[in-house]
Amino acid sequence: xxxxxxxxxxxxxxxxxxxxxxxxxxxxxxxxxxxxxxxxxxxxxxxxxxxxxxxxxxxxxxxxxxxxxxxxxxxxxxxxxxxxxxxxxxxxxxxxxxxxxxxxxxxxxxxxxxxxxxxxxxxxxxxxxxxxxxxxxxxxxxxxxxxxxxxxxxxxxxxxxxxxxxxxxxxxxxxxxxxxxxxxxxxxxxxxxxxxxxxxxxxxxxxxxxxxxxxxxxxxxxxxxxxxxxxxxxxxxxxxxxxxxxxxxxxxxxxxxxxxxxxxxxxxxxxxxxxxxxxxxxxxxxxxxxxxxxxxxxxxxxxxxxxxxxxxxxxxxxxxxxxxxxxxxxxxxxxxxxxxxxxxxxxxxxxxxxxxxxxxxxxxxxxxxxxxxxxxxxxxxxxxxxxxxxxxxxxxxxxxxxxxxxxxxxxxxxxxxxxxxxxxxxxxxxxxxxxxxxxxxxxxxxxxxxxxxxxxxxxxxxxxxxxxxxxxxxxxxxxxxxxxxxxxxxxxxxxxxxxxxxxxxxxxxxxxxxxxxxxxxxxxxxxxxxxxxxxxxxxxxxxxxxxxxxxxxxxxxxxxxxxxxxxxxxxxxxxxxxxxxxxxxxxxxxxxxxxxxxxxxxxxxxxxxxxxxxxxxxxxxxxxxxxxxxxxxxxxxxxxxxxxxxxxxxxxxxx
Length: 655
Hints:
Layout: H1 3-7, H2 19-27, E1 34-38, E2 41-46, H3 50-69, H4 76-105, H5 114-242, H6 245-257, H7 273-279, E3 288-289, E4 298-305, E5 308-315, H8 323-335, E6 344-348, E7 353-357, H9 364-367, H10 383-401, E8 418-424, E9 428-433, H11 452-456, H12 460-466, H13 471-487, H14 491-502, H15 508-511, H16 517-530, H17 545-561, H18 568-571, E10 593-595, E11 601-603, H19 604-612, E12 631-632, H20 634-654
Antiparallel strand pairs: 1-2, 3-4, 4-5, 5-7, 6-7, 8-9, 10-11, 10-12
Helix pairs in contact: 3-4, 4-5, 5-6, 5-20, 10-13, 10-17, 13-14, 13-16, 14-16, 16-17
């Protein structure tokens, strides 16, 4: 024990009192047996504890084994405890070694130098404790550094794991999004293909519909032409049998209308509003053309529809139009088919528009102006061209008045409604009559009151007596047109000028400049008779309208035949010939007419050449011929022969 214990020694001391002794007693290895001495006297003894040593050894071994077995999964706290145990074990070992050294240095018998030995042992123990404390501090610092490093490593590992998991989640999400986008793209592509297929089918259907409509229109025109030719053939046949040309025309027209046609509904081509809007450039005023006052308060636009030049007449929106009445009026217009009538193309009830073929020659009104040669206006027509135009108008009116059960009245014959067909050899000048049935498109209450121009072409006697239109209305208007053709003056002045020339109060050179005197006198007298004025017998009843028209056709045909540069050879071909005298293939007057299997009559050589070239279809209808046998048309041949002789006699009489 130390020097302090030696000084406090007494015989009754049974426990260590010095710090050194107490430290050794508590911290020495339990397996060591320790004797505590003071001044050479034994104070007490601490027996060795084998169980505690063994238990501590087993605990240390188990702890070491546990730490070894779980070193791969140890936590920082466990590792800290391991380091502390190692430090404590080191300190215990140093204390044991120190006690052993004290035990070895202690003399077997107490001597006087025992105090000095205790001081030396104390110094050694102090140094050992200081070294242990230093080692413990170093172990603690090392433990703390390791803890910080391990915490940083654990945090970095945790962050790395979290980043890896986030990356995996992002990759899975990206893969799902890509798969969804791929599915959406595939669905969109499929929809686009289906839409393209649908649009292609719609386009094909539209194209087919347009083709069928054109075919229907062409078929309707062909059928109307066939009916007109058939009626003309019946007309000619009846003329040859009965010798009454006008009654034949009436029967022919009645057959072509099939019991009057009033009860028979004929369909017409119904056009869409978008088609008319595109054809007229959205109904632009720049494409508007003069339609000639037909009384329906409308506008007429020029345009191109399905590759064909057309005139689109639109009823003004402020005029009441009944849909059923409009449709019936269009059907009646469509039933009237004649070479000298403007052809109906179709109608659009939604736009309240009627579409006709466009006649590019302009109206007769534009060609009667004496100053028409100036500026952009067309030049006035020569006298023989005026006769050709008037002849075409007479033919159209004769056809309309021949319908049954009652005649069809145009009701608005005037130069503005007579469209000029330019000189087209060998047929010469002609016209197409427009405005037929236009008044029926609107309600009766919407009909405008007749103006000054209307009254000039209206027959006052018949209009006032019956209050309804009749063929004499058309004949009267035609007479006014003839007088205007001769005199070139307005309607009200033309009749007065013609009367003065016929009575000798004025010369024909003054009244009808540019006309041959004899031709001017004949046409003027014809016009006066159509107007109900008979210079030779004014009190005589007026002739029937049919006879007046027939007379007008004869006078005008003779005038056209006597035109300059017309020779007998040219007259013998096709000039002024009825259309049914012409071969559909050669477009010339036939010499040997033959009836084919399609019912049409052709020049014998032309139809035989057609059949020899390998054709088995009709040149007119393009349908297969039921037979290739030809039948001579004796009635038509006789009529052509008679016409040639009549033309030749007229030519010799004039020259």
